[in-house]
Each structure stands twice: as structure tokens, then as C-alpha cells.
Amino acid sequence: MGKRLTQIATRTGDDGTTGLGDNTRVSKDSLRVHAMGDVDELNSHIGLLLCEEMPGDVRELLVEIQHQLFNLGGELSIPGFELLKAEAVEALDTALAKYNAQLPKLQEFILPAGNRAASQAHVCRTVARRAERALVALGASDKLREAPRQYLNRLSDLMFVLARVLNRMNGGDDVYWKSERLARSQDGA
């Protein structure tokens, strides 16, 4: 692994390049750097979500996810290196099953709204989807393992489910989309 940062303002990026963990330099607009940035942004949004009130088990899960996202970012910064393990994907599958079992089945689409914690979870969901798209784009040109892409896919699903869980805190509920089709079917039209 490359050197740990001992200073932040190195000026080495002034030429539009950045250093990877294997000591190579790449353009700051490379697909790899975009993917790293999206994963970093997602981790930051989860940090913001953690500022909100939430059940303790959800908080513990999100903290673990932050660590795994840091692993994912590290893996992206060192081409060919593995930091994110398959067990991390399995942990998300387990969490998805646990929290989904607590929720009523959806009858209609929901809006990314509700209380602030749920709304921030929806922001995390959309950033996870963008990070996943960045990994797919990177994977078209560079060899990548499946686990990072699978992790982001599961994580976006989990963030949707957690938004629903968080909306139910203190007696709240999902915010349903006012579908014209649904309204017509309920009116008998």
C-alpha cells in the first residue's frame, strides 16, 4: 500500500493528476477517480445520516457500512488489490432480509421524503446508485471484482429499506406517490 498522508496540501495534484495507492498517477477525470469520489461522497452522506436520531441497531449497521465503504475506496485506489470481502455483501443481504421483514408490502411507489433521517437515507440510496454506475463504467475498461459492484447494488436497496424504517420512527409512514393510474383504479374508472 502507498504511503499514508502526512500532509494534505502536497501540490502534486496541481497538474490535474492524482496518486493512486500503488504510487501511479492518473488524471483526476479518470473513471477510477470518479468511482473513488462517488464512494467517498456516499460515505460522507452516510456520516451525515448518522447525525440523525435512529434506532441503535440501524446506527451500528451504518457505522459498519462506512468502514466497508472505506475498504471499497481503498480497493479502488489500488488496482488489482482486494479489501472488500464477499462477507460484506452477505452482511447487507442479511440486513435487507431483517429490515424488509419489519415493513408492510408496498402498494405504490414512494417519494424520497418523510422525516429528515429517511430523506437523507434516500440521498444515500441515489449516491450509491451513482457509485454503482461509476463502477460499471470503470469495469468496462479495467478488470474489477464483482464484490464491489454487488456491494453498492445491495447497499442502494438497503438504503431504500432503511428510509422506510426511519420514516416509521415516532409513528410516521412512507410518503406515497399520487399516481393518476392508482387514483383512476380506485375510482372505478
TrEMBL record:
Keywords for this protein: ATP-binding, Cobalamin biosynthesis, Nucleotide-binding, Transferase
Catalytic reactions of this protein: 2 cob(II)alamin + AH2 + 2 ATP = 2 adenosylcob(III)alamin + 2 triphosphate + A + 2 H(+)
Taxonomic superkingdom: Bacteria
EC number annotated for this UniProt entry: 2.5.1.-
Uppermost EC category: transferase
Residue segments, region Disordered: 1-23
Residues of the Cobalamin adenosyltransferase-like domain: 8-165
InterPro entries: CblAdoTrfase-like, CblAdoTrfase-like_sf, PduO-typ
One of the record's GO molecular function terms: corrinoid adenosyltransferase activity
Gene3D superfamilies, sorted: Cobalamin adenosyltransferase-like
Pfam assignment, any one: Cob_adeno_trans
GO biological process: cobalamin biosynthetic process
Family as reported in the entry's similarity comment: Belongs to the Cob(I)alamin adenosyltransferase family.
Record's subunit section: Homotrimer.
Name this polypeptide is given: Cobalamin adenosyltransferase
Lineage start: Bacteria, Pseudomonadati, Pseudomonadota, Betaproteobacteria, Burkholderiales
